[in-house]
Description:
Elements: H1 27-40, H2 43-53, E1 60-61, H3 62-65, H4 73-85, E2 89-94, E3 97-102, H5 106-114
Antiparallel strand pairs: 1-3, 2-3
Amino acid sequence: MSKQELEVIGQGADGCCDGLASAPLDDERVAQLAKVFKALGDPVRLRLLSMIASREGGEVCVCEMTPAFDLSQPTISHHLKLLRQAGLIDCERRGTWVYYWVLPGALDQLAAFLTMPQTAGATA
């Protein structure tokens, strides 16, 4: 399986910890984040990411995820590929099966981006 070059959101030199409210986004950052949100906007991909992220041990075989869906294995693999391209997960082939895990910090960086800073006197 070939490795694709992925830049995990927030790991470039362009402000790793800048949140949504810190400054307007530039075109490159908008395109990068749009790819992530588009990947998360599909119910199948969101469920796949949840299955991987919640898995004890941190990784899961594609053979364990496929039965949870009424979709073919190639369709599941396509959805997983889009999550990889968005920089949310990675994988490794072991024999005939492929194992997936969430990239370290990817979800934390996304959460930090979406978090609004608390201001003095703000009410909940």
